[in-house]
Specification:
The chain is mainly alpha-helical. It is 60% helix and 6% strand. The longest helix is centred in the middle third of the chain and has 20 residues. The chain is globular, with a radius of gyration of 18 Å.
Length: 335
């Protein structure tokens, strides 16, 4: 990668400060990604102002009673703030989100269904794996709560069976549980969400049983395919196996972060570290002087190839958050 610790710290501060300046006040998955990384950065860099900014956002929403998966998706950010500050309101919100996830309906294969979908709530989206299971596993570890740990393991099996294609060794954006059909397009952020969830599950799921062995195999095969599809620039495409689609920064940040964590945690061989480094270099190159992470695609509903190709690129909270999270991972091992 080539950046020193000092350079990485400066990059992280620049991205974090720009993320705060975006003033993301909603309570949804995108804001959750952004504020989770800001809170992490505040703790890693010793910047109390960053933790305080994330805490202010949580306090604005601490009375939320989750009624949709989108309102549960910021749970990791709320947990990060609760751990950093000891704030009782944040912890109470974490508890309500976890209770909601424990009750949320699941597909026949065990993944969460998108109850807001027009197809009578039968669509399984890869996004929600990372936006739910890591929170459950972290809470399980803190509480010693077998219900949360068991659900996280069931979700891992459910999403792997639903969204992962053994023929392509890639994750699809969605799976229709009613028709047992997988979407044909391998959206880049879906690969990012799912690969991060795979790594997080391997890191936190207790034991060494069959679930972890199966997920380790999924990770190995997915990583091999993503290595083959990496652009010479280091980035990955909006649809990872279709080079006519845009190179996309948030997917690149997520995939690079997942591979780096997998290497650092001993779940992938060291050769993937070079793949991750090239990906992170592409992400760093997309950060402008003001800390804005450019080349990020907007909100992307499931669709056809033309739909994925038509989503405009810009600066968005999820791009800020994932680029910052990646920067913090490289900072952990920097000289």
């Amino acid at each position: 990668m080539g950046q020193s610790r000092t350079e990485l710290e400066a990059l992280a501060r620049r991205i974090a400060q720009r993320t705060v300046a975006l003033d993301c006040r909603g309570f949804n998955w995108g804001e959750g990604v952004a504020w989770h990384a800001v809170a992490q950065a505040g703790r890693a860099l010793g910047e109390e102002a960053l933790v305080a900014a994330a805490g202010d956002w949580v306090r604005e929403h601490e009375r939320v009673e989750p009624s949709t998966m989108l309102e549960a998706a910021p749970g990791l950010a709320v947990l990060e703030v609760a751990e950093a500050t000891g704030d009782g309101g944040a912890q109470a919100l974490v508890d309500r989100i976890v209770d909601y996830l424990l009750r949320y309906p699941r597909s026949r294969l065990g993944a969460y269904c998108d109850a807001a979908d027009t197809q009578a709530g039968t669509l399984v989206a890869a996004d929600y794996w990372y936006l739910s299971a890591p929170l459950l596993m972290r809470v399980a570890r803190r509480r010693g709560d077998d219900r949360c740990a068991d659900l996280a393991g069931q979700l891992a099996i459910g999403y792997a069976h639903s969204c992962w294609s053994s023929a392509d060794c890639l994750f699809a954006h969605t799976y229709d549980d009613a028709n047992a059909t997988r979407a044909p397009w391998h959206w880049g952020r879906a690969s990012g969400w799912a690969t991060l969830a795979l790594v997080e599950t391997l890191e936190l799921l207790p034991g060494h049983g069959g679930v972890k062995l199966a997920l380790a195999r999924h990770l190995e095969r997915t990583a091999r395919r993503l290595r083959e599809l990496q652009d010479p620039s280091g980035a990955w495409h909006t649809v990872v196996d279709r080079c006519e689609t845009d190179l996309e920064t948030s997917a690149t940040a997520m995939i690079a972060l997942a591979l780096r964590r997998a290497v650092d945690g001993g779940h992938l061989g060291g050769g993937y570290g070079e793949v991750a480094d090239r990906g992170f270099a592409a992400v760093a190159a997309a950060v402008d002087d003001d800390g804005a992470v450019t080349g990020v695609s907007g909100w992307t509903p499931p669709g056809g190839l033309a739909d994925y190709s038509s989503v405009a690129l810009g600066v968005f909270p999820w791009g800020q958050g994932m680029a910052l999270a990646a920067c913090l991972q490289w900072l952990r091992t920097a000289a």
